[in-house]
Amino acid sequence: xxxxxxxxxxxxxxxxxxxxxxxxxxxxxxxxxxxxxxxxxxxxxxxxxxxxxxxxxxxxxxxxxxxxxxxxxxxxxxxxxxxxxxxxxxxxxxxxxxxxxxxxxxxxxxxxxxxxxxxxxxxxxxxxxxxxxxxxxxxxxxxxxxxxxxxxxxxxxxxxxxxxxxxxxxxx
Length: 172
What we know:
This protein has helices at 12-19, 65-75, 94-107, 112-122, 130-139, 145-152; strands at residues 4-8, 23-28, 45-49, 84-88, 165-167. It is of the alpha/beta class.
């Protein structure tokens, strides 16, 4: 099984070249959404135009349940033979929340803490967007387990931009 990867936008070209993912998820504000990279199949690129906010009233384009549902439907089409790549602007919040969501869906109920702690070990900078996590927790019927797991991660290492991080499903 190939890994799930998270990267900041600035590292996207290198991650695409080095890891040759079959699926790509872009989580950027609507006004900064990128086009599908040259040579990458458009049908394998999910674009979610959302801002990195945790309060729906804090600004335009907040993460919504429909975004999580689109992410889950898209990720369920991944057969795992090639990597699955998720990016946002910094590779810290929206993309980490999305990776946590996909991993929780893949590994099933009861693995939330295990996944969150593995995420913290591999990505000390991870600070999953809590609004995305709240919507994912509801969509997956986890009754607060995903939110509790993210809280159990503890505080992140504060960085302006993350680094490309691999999450091999077999090691979680």
